[in-house]
Write a structure and sequence with these properties.
Helix content: 55-70%
Number of helices: 35
Largest sheet: 2 strands, parallel
Radius of gyration: 30 Å
Strand content: under 5%
Structural class: mainly alpha
Number of strands: 4
Amino acid sequence: MTTAQNPRAWRRERTFVPFRLPDTIAALPRRPFEFSPAGRDAAAAASLEPRALFHRLLRDQESEASLLLSRRILHAFLPSDGEHPEDGPYAAAEPEAAAAIIAAQVDEVRAELAGTADALGRPDPESREAVVRQRAPLALLGGCWLDHVSQPATQPSVIVNRLFTHHLTLRGPGNGKRGLAHLRRQALETEGVHLPSIAAVDFLDKARARPLTALHGCFYLALSRLPANFLPEVVGVHYAFFALGTDNLLTGTAPPLSEQRLREALVAYLALAGPDERRRLRAAVRLTLDLEREHTAMLTELASFRAGLSLEAKVAEIIARHAPLAGTQHGGVRVGDRLLSDIFGAPGPARGEATAPGLAAFLTEFRDSRYLRPTGSGDGGCRFTDAMRFGGPMFGIFDEREAATFRAWATRVHAGERPVIEIPPDTVGDEQAARWSTALARSAPADVVVAEADPRDHRALFHRLVNIENFPNTLPLAAERAEQCFQDAEILFVHGSGGRYTDATWFDYSPQALYERAERIYWEKLVEPYRPLEEIPDRDEVLFRQSTYYLTYLIDGAWLHRLATLGHDERESDGMLFSIYADEMGNGDLRKNHITLTHRVLASAGIELPHIRDEAFMEQDELPDDLYGFALQQLCMCLFPDRFYNEILGYNLAIEMFGSGEMRLHEIQKLRHHGIDTCYEQAHLTIDNFSAGHAKQAADIIVSHLDGVRRTLGEAAVAAEWRRVWRGYASFAYFLEQPMLKEIAAAPDTASPAPPPPGDDTVSELVI
């Protein structure tokens, strides 16, 4: 007998402790981290050179290797388990008192760094710019550890939602130009520091980041990749970094989060934390304070180094920075008996820099060459500096500060000054960086397990996807499964018009065509067919139907939770998608959080379940097995926000449109009749409207994205992007429109119909 024939046939004896609100989790249980042999090998082959590692973590958020590197970095930086002498009074203190102990420790270091920051504000302008530029990567990374803290495994946690309100503030509520990254860029530009996007390939070069800066950045990025497993460390780092406010001290800007708000979140966490979580939190606070002390000490060293450079050394530094990019463009220019293209054209040491002795020798020859002899024009010029003027062959190569350095040097040469040229090596921060690099090279976390992913069934796969931080070896399976579904769903490009609630038939894209299709679906398929039910099914049947929806309700918003993270949030559509996700999570307000609403409905219906993150959920006996396929597709595609960006846009349109209309209204009617909470259904009925709600926003997002594609890649690129967007829409319809798919498969004239989605062959409808 199937579940469709007997609504209670799926029940088994319950063997778990049910989850109940509020979600007071302070840390996930410690679990191993599983990586496949291929993932292990890819991580082993990755460069641990600080800059390369920084770029890898920032740009790659989808691979096993990136997660394994993150685990190794956290193991290298975080102290090993064990008591600390300072933790005695703190461990047993009430939350407010424990928070006061931490705050006092941070205040002490802040007072120390305030003096350092004041001194760093007084150097000459050139040294000051070097200090601000060097700090920029860490200033712009601030808060990245909150990017993935809200996820299926952690919602609707009390502390995660407090942190999410901070995340919204840091991003700029409703306006990215009010966000921390934008405000810090403005402060940098005021200091004369103009940098490309943090994800740009030349970002660290333009920031002139030292290895120590890159390594500190790697720690914060690694924490952002595994926040569910390192929640105590996230809370500790978050409080210490922003309460300390190194960047605000350096630039004289207002803190983005007040100490009071930070303290309130800290107290809230300490009220939830056990002894182990408290120890881990304080260890993370101490580490953050040590890192910030270490970095400001490096900035002081940098300012001193810059102030002590001779004019010749500054000239050498500029040449070393630019010469490797000149290639063979110097033509027949000679210095001494060598062609300039021979001196600088060939690849040199790391990042193309010439050696100090080689540069010293070159500058000794160059200052006596004809290129630095006065032109006699009376303005102190020479052929070299004249070439930098408008119309000259080197116009625009050097910025004004660099050109001024060359002019000052030429003036001194013309005055007859010929000091011995000595170029001190720039080793600022290298001793500390070497210590961290050594720790990273030796890092071998004991909780890393190498094994192929082999989930026994849909329940096990669901558990792995929810807890993907612990099961990165499941990523290849997830990518394959998502891609296969997208391909199979393209059958609806031809047959989709028969859908009861969707129409995925193909049409050529234009903004007007998209809006017209969406409006027609909204009115003709979702709104106009509605008539109140004349007969309400009995309570058991209503509860069974609801039980087929709850698996997807419990991961509401998951398709968007990895979008718009640091380095992946520069399109207008990214911010718009993040706003929708924030709404799904109640913007940090637990009362409005859609996962909270789901648990309210479950409680009112008398349905008891473990949390989806718990292993016990694999054994739950309330939700039938037949519906896992749809939830699995959502969890699979969301793990690849770059690879499946277009598909997620189309899927988002489909799921947000479906929030309104006939089925939602019928469910509300049935639930009210049987005294079951309608808060979840009611919330979606209002928030997903096509006037100004999520459904309309979803269409606007697609238009915005494709307009950006057209402007950057041209009209021809839009068609390929659009096809992927629309198959994302079709993938939602593929699960929803089961009766139609069965008719397509049975039709004799259907050529090679796609199979129905696995695990969804007994349920005719879904409500999302």
